TrEMBL record:
InterPro entries assigned: MFS, MFS_dom, MFS_trans_sf
Top-rank taxon: Bacteria
Membrane-spanning parts: 31-48, 68-87, 94-114, 120-141, 153-171, 183-203, 233-256, 262-286, 298-315, 321-344, 356-375, 381-402
Subcellular location: Cell membrane
Phylogenetic classification of the source organism: Bacteria, Pseudomonadati, Pseudomonadota, Betaproteobacteria, Burkholderiales
Organism: Burkholderia contaminans
Molecular function, one GO term: transmembrane transporter activity
Protein name per its UniProtKB record: MFS transporter
SUPFAM superfamilies: MFS general substrate transporter (SSF103473)
């Protein structure tokens, strides 16, 4: 670890960035948080578009090959609630960049796995590292920016996750068509290394306020858990589970649908459909500006409706209509994610790391279910069964946002946080 840190520091000095914290509103800092989002999702779904290749290599069904995604999201769900505690004494920039670099190791492991069990183990190991990028980045944004600006920067971070999700999938599929899936994952590992170094070079040091270990509610389990078990936050955790479940269900099974008749998409074609994520790279920051002025409820409700409409469009047999539906539904999911990040950061001001960790746990647990629960419907009704699952999940999101995401709900929870927390000495 010391060797890695030394290399990162030399890189930072080489590009001429002072070790003291840079201004938090400059372009470099915004790019840094965008890169944090990029790193958080770069590897997460990289195997989602190569299920047939994995199935052929390991002698399993394409549906079972989808467990490579579930293994990663399950690991994230397990470790995420403890990220705040595990990284409590590590400076934010160091923890985030180290996690972004370290995830390359299990990616290389998965690229050269000799069995399906070993492959799943590697994917699980990668999931144990990823939450440190996501949770600490969101907590850092909330710590350093005012409420309005944090909503905008959180949306920029989520836009980075959008590009990372696309890049991981597209690069893997493209390289698979040229060199095979094993070397494709080697390329993803190299991208993880480069991104981690870039994050360290551009992200300002958190300085003395990084975690408030002695004064933050995250330093005491009792107050933190009392805070995060209030209604609005519990609803937000359920929203996260439904949001990612719908996203994973959509993009796990749409690849299988488009690979079959009458579409006949190949590996590169399936990878190209993830280009619809690029719409969210533009739209999500705009939603962040809306959330800055009107709060997260309005974009959250609009996104749930958009996701349902997009899912229904994919029932068509017309490829452009299907792609339009995928663009709408995927963009909606990233807007929902940005809105949830904003609401939780505001509602759990004295227990952000704990709240964000639990949200991530529920979010990725939902993602794990998203590749499992639609399977019976897929076998019985085909794509229509998957769409029914997505519509149901997004309907739940809409109801919970409408019921719990009021401005006074976030303010009330935050005020209750302040009353319930006793600073630890």
């Amino acid at each position: 670890m010391k060797t890695v840190l030394a290399c990162l520091r030399r890189t930072r000095q080489t590009v001429g960035i002072d070790e003291q914290a840079a201004p938090m509103n400059d372009r470099t800092t915004r790019i840094a948080f965008f890169l944090c989002g990029f790193a958080a999702f770069l590897n997460l779904y990289s195997t989602q578009g190569i299920l047939h290749e994995l199935a052929g290599t390991f002698g399993v069904s394409a549906e079972r090959a989808g467990q490579g995604v579930s293994a990663t999201t399950t690991a994230v769900a397990i470790i995420a609630p403890f990220v705040g505690v595990l990284a409590a004494r590590i400076e934010r920039r160091v923890a985030i960049s180290l996690a972004a670099v370290a995830v390359a190791l299990p990616v290389v492991w998965s690229a050269h796995a000799g069995s399906f069990a070993s492959f799943l183990g590697a994917r699980f190991a990668a999931g144990l590292v990823m939450p440190f990028i996501f949770a600490l980045s969101i907590a850092y944004i909330a710590e350093r920016f005012d409420r309005g600006t944090s909503a905008e920067i959180s949306a920029l971070f989520v836009a980075g996750t959008t590009l990372g999700g696309f890049a991981g999938r597209f690069a893997t599929n493209l390289m698979t068509s040229i060199w095979g899936w094993r070397h494709a994952l080697d390329v993803v590992a190299a991208l993880c290394l480069v991104t981690g170094i870039a994050i360290y070079a551009s992200l300002p040091a958190s300085g003395g306020i990084a975690r408030h270990v002695e004064h933050d509610a995250d330093g005491g389990a009792g107050p933190s858990w009392r805070i995060v078990t209030r209604g609005p936050l519990l609803a937000s955790f359920a929203i996260g589970a439904c949001v990612l479940a719908s996203q994973v269900a959509t993009f796990t099974f749409v690849g299988l649908r488009l690979a079959g008749a009458p579409f006949g998409f190949g590996t590169v074609g399936i990878g190209a459909i993830y280009g619809v994520f690029l719409v969210a790279v533009v739209v999500t920051p705009l939603a962040g500006r809306l959330a800055r002025h009107r709060g997260p409820r309005a974009p959250g409700l609009a996104a749930a409706a958009l996701a349902i409409g997009g899912a229904l469009l994919t029932l068509s047999d017309n490829v452009p209509v299907i792609l339009a539906g995928l663009a709408l539904s995927s963009t909606a999911v990233f807007v929902e994610q940005a809105s949830a990040n904003t609401f939780i950061s505001q509602a759990a001001s004295n227990a952000r790391s704990t709240a964000i960790g639990i949200y991530l746990s529920c979010y990725y647990f939902g993602g794990s279910l998203g590749s499992i629960l639609p399977v019976p419907g897929w076998h019985r009704w085909g794509w229509a069964g998957c769409v029914a699952f997505v519509v149901a999940a997004q309907a739940i999101v809409g109801v919970l946002v409408y019921r719990f995401w009021h401005a006074d709900g976030a303010a009330g929870t935050a005020q209750a946080d302040a009353r319930s927390v006793t600073p630890m000495r």
